[in-house]
Amino acid sequence: MIGLVYKDCMTLKKQLTTLLMFLLAYGALTVAGVFDVSILGALVTVMGMTIPMSSVALDDAARWDRYAVATPAGRRGVVAGKYVFTALVIVVSSIFAVLLMVGLSLAGLSKQTLTENLVVALSCAAVTLLLNAVILPFLLKYGAEKARVISMTVFVVIFGGALLLENLWDNGMVLPEIPAGLVQALPVLFCSLAVGAFVVSYVISLGIYNRKEF
Fold it and tell me: In terms of residue numbers, what domain contains 67?
């Protein structure tokens, strides 16, 4: 499995480097006042969504799966490799974004406090993990091309719903009041939900992949 993760890292090394450079570029634009610091958290979501999909797309193009399932890693190793690689991309990009956010906050170049920026980064990482928990089973079952439509649908539904709620809130919609203690615990609860969903997604993907014919 470690070899499969390493293969994905080497195959997508150029793309990973490019996206990390984008993070640096957007960090510079944030310093210039073009963007808010929260844009760095959004880029974590972009990286966490596009890199795993690119990995599966390259495997599909090379018909890699037919060979990979015959290796000692087997089907379980292939599925585990994709999930570990996805989690690794999210963690590394989140750490990179957090370091930039911390630097900008300490330099006084952020409108938000350091704590608020960390919550944004953590929330974006959790959202990305949750989105991948939904999409990865479809990627492994149908391949990148067919799953692309599903991923776009999930993305539009979630973020469209968030924008709709924000619009309703701005227009005077009254939402139920959430207890202060629950509000403080929400980041931890949401992250726990995302991790749990990712684990459940792995089990589902393993079942799908074990029945897949090549």
Answer: 2-211
DSSP 172: T
The H-assigned helical ranges of the chain are 2-11, 13-31, 39-62, 64-68, 74-106, 114-142, 144-170, 180-211
Residues 166 and 100 sit within 8 Å (Cβ to Cβ): no
State pLDDT tens for residues 5-38.
888 888 888 888 888 888 788 878 877 777 777 7
With contact defined as beta carbons under 8 Å apart, do 88 and 5 qualify?
yes
User: Nearest-CA neighbor of 195 among 117, 120, 121, 128?
Assistant: 128
Nearest to 50 by CA among 4, 12, 101: 12
Q: Which of 193, 40, 202, 185 is nearest to 124 (CA)?
A: 40
Contacts of 120 (CB under 8 A, 6+ apart): 37, 38, 41, 101, 112
Structure tokens at 93: 């990009």
Domain count across the chain: 1
Quick one: pLDDT at residue 206? 92
Residues 6+ apart with CB under 8 A from 98: 117, 118, 121
User: Global pTM?
Assistant: 0.83
Half-sphere exposure in the Cβ direction for 73 (13 Å, CA): 18
Task: Give the closest residue to 194 by CA, choosing from 128, 139, 145.
Answer: 128
Length of the chain: 214
Cα separation of 76 and 171, whole Å? 50
